[in-house]
Amino acid sequence: MLKIGITGGIGSGKTTVCKVFETLGIPVFYADTVAKELMVSDPILIAGVKKAFGQESYAASGALNNKHIAQIVFNNQTELDKLNALVHPAVFRAFDSWAKKVPSNVPYTLKEAALLFESGSYQMCDKNILVTAPLELKLARVMQRDGASREQVLARMDKQWSDEQKSKMADYFIGNTEHQSIILQVLALHEQFLKL
Ligand SMILES: CC(C)(COP(=O)(O)OP(=O)(O)OC[C@H]1O[C@@H](n2cnc3c(N)ncnc32)[C@H](O)[C@@H]1O)[C@@H](O)C(=O)NCCC(=O)NCCS
Ligand SMILES: Nc1ncnc2c1ncn2[C@@H]1O[C@H](COP(=O)(O)OP(=O)(O)OP(=O)(O)O)[C@@H](O)[C@H]1O
């Protein structure tokens, strides 16, 4: 089964692009979403997060206190490394078992991850796509989507590799500005992937 990784900086639009692939019947593994699910369901991970970031990492209901954790990790690289070391191996395992269950008649699958290159998970994929957009557009999108401040978004961007770094490792590119059609670019890539 051909596995294609897809990434892009915060607000580049990788999730939006993946929704277009899904309309073509391509199964997508959303690593960031799975990471969040595991953080409230995997007992070992929950214990690790509480130990690293305190009991207040979870509400009494068991819900994750995203704000508490984000406030710690996006302001301190050592704390972020701790969180990544807890979460990423669990996400890798989940991807492995997800991929095994994909029906054999599917031409290829996508793995969408914000940290595809940074975490090394691109190595689990045969080819990788980078979604790009200018910095100001990414900032505006995330500020609007999450109701976040410019500083909060910049703090996350600062913890991700630059597009320049990522582009050295990518095989394909999708530009996502107002002037570029993601639908046409996805269709063109889909045709290429069917021939791989
Ligand atoms: C820190 C947490 C609790 C903040 O939750 P919050 O709801 O505010 O953000 P959310 O998960 O929706 O992420 C939004 C975006 O932030 C960026 N981001 C998230 N985690 C990270 C990270 N570890 N490093 C750099 N950027 C990150 C990504 O661009 C992501 O798409 C959450 O992001 C988390 O658990 N992160 C660790 C898991 C992880 O590394 N996920 C990303 C790749 S698997
Ligand atoms: N081409 C586009 N036109 C209009 N809005 C867009 C476009 N692409 C993305 N957006 C919007 O920008 C926001 C960010 O997009 P999306 O969530 O797909 O980015 P992402 O790269 O997955 O971000 P994150 O790393 O935070 O998960 C969303 O609200 C989305 O609807």
Task: Record the SSE blueprint.
Layout: E1 2-8, H1 14-23, E2 28-30, H2 31-39, H3 43-53, H4 66-73, H5 77-101, E3 108-112, E4 127-132, H6 135-146, H7 150-157, H8 163-167, E5 172-175, H9 182-195
Parallel strand pairs: 1-3, 1-4, 2-3, 4-5
Helix pairs in contact: 2-5, 3-5
Bound molecules: dephospho coenzyme A and adenosine-5'-triphosphate (ATP).
Adenosine-5'-triphosphate binds next to helix 1 and helix 6.
Summarize the structure.
The chain has 196 residues and is of the alpha/beta class.
Under CATH, the topology of the domain at 2-27 and 102-195 is which? Rossmann fold
What is the number of beta strands?
Answer: 5
Level of helix content?
Answer: 40-55%
- N-to-C SSE series? EHEHHHHEEHHHEH
Q: What gyration radius follows from the Cα positions, in whole Å?
A: 17 Å
- The best one-word shape is globular
CATH architecture of the domain at 2-27 and 102-195: 3-Layer(aba) Sandwich
GO molecular function: dephospho-CoA kinase activity; translation elongation factor activity
Main location: cytoplasm
Pfam families: CoaE
Keywords: ATP-binding, Coenzyme A biosynthesis, Cytoplasm, Elongation factor, Kinase, Nucleotide-binding, Protein biosynthesis, Transferase
